[in-house]
Amino acid sequence: MSSQRVPIEPQRVDAPLTQSATFLVVSVTSNPDAIQTVRSTLAGLDSLAKNVSIRDLGAQFACTVGIGSDIWDSLTGLPRPAELHSFREVKGAKHTAVSTPGDLLFHIRSERRDLCFEFERQLMDLLGDAVTVVDATVGFRYFDVRDLLGFVDGTANPVGPAVPSSVLVAEEDASASGGSYIVVQKYTHDLHAWKTLPVEQQEKIIGRTKLENVELDDAESGQRSHKTLNTIEDEAGNEHDILRDNMPFGSPGSAEFGTYFIGYTRRLWVIEKMLERMFVGDPPGLHDRLLDFSKPLTGTTFFAPSASLLASLESD
Ligand code: HEM
């Protein structure tokens, strides 16, 4: 992705929605060589991606890496992105957005599951005992980009030039420019309870119709929909979008039905505001009803630096 406003090369943050994705979160160990191993692996990430993507150019392979706040200084030795900090728990009256550990996130995407698998295999070979895996979730595309609740997910994402302006840090934080904040949360759903709700009620919770994905009007007062709670304006009345690439995951055999939420943003405060509105509610007390059927098991924040910064890591 190239941005008019960002002269350096970002990572493939805006890679297209794919059929398959792996969300790999790892922690860096205290092994004496760990930092150096991770640094050289990240510096070579682009070559590693090429090893795999060339094997089927039509499969839209892409991998972006995010670096967590706790490891940023020792790993990069570079100025910290202005807003970078660990995920802050959000405690509402009924539901909590938990904060869980993780130093690195690899968001691996492709039309083909085998390419994601192969990349993850080669990556783990390189990282070896420099990391321990916190979570590895394999997501899949479900029909017409639906989540397992049955709704089309991702419609309001920015498109075209609105992508870099929503997602990439620019002149406001020069040393972090071309990078992007990432928030992930792994949710599981109580599908049984969700299915007992009439479709009309489900639609009110989401803020769109189920079959045709048509936007419903915002509620004038009282309980707001997921869509409305996640529409964020700043004090000047400007609306701030984020880029989501959520994926269903799970296994009917073990009664696991989930959504892996991933949001990329130029301004971390925007996603934090969304979480506050969802979990605490707006007005406070009227939380996002989606949470009565969806429980976050994880919550972690990362910063995906520009590709240029990643490539420079080895020589530091
Ligand atoms: C259980 C997890 C989640 C599910 C199943 C889910 C599903 C959906 C669906 C179906 C829509 C409507 C279609 C669309 O525009 O994409 C939507 C909209 C949206 N969601 Fe979520 N979502 C989840 C979690 C989150 C979280 C944690 C955030 C932010 C922190 C978020 C932010 C948004 C935003 C920004 C929109 C678009 C609002 C607009 O219309 O401007 N979602 N989500």
UniProtKB/TrEMBL annotation:
SUPFAM superfamilies: Dimeric alpha+beta barrel (SSF54909). Residues 14-141 form the Dyp-type peroxidase N-terminal domain. Its cofactor is heme b. Keywords: Iron, Metal-binding, Oxidoreductase, Peroxidase. Residues 145-307 form the Dyp-type peroxidase C-terminal domain. The keyword Metal-binding applies. GO terms for molecular function: heme binding; metal ion binding; peroxidase activity. Belongs to the DyP-type peroxidase family. This is Dyp-type peroxidase.
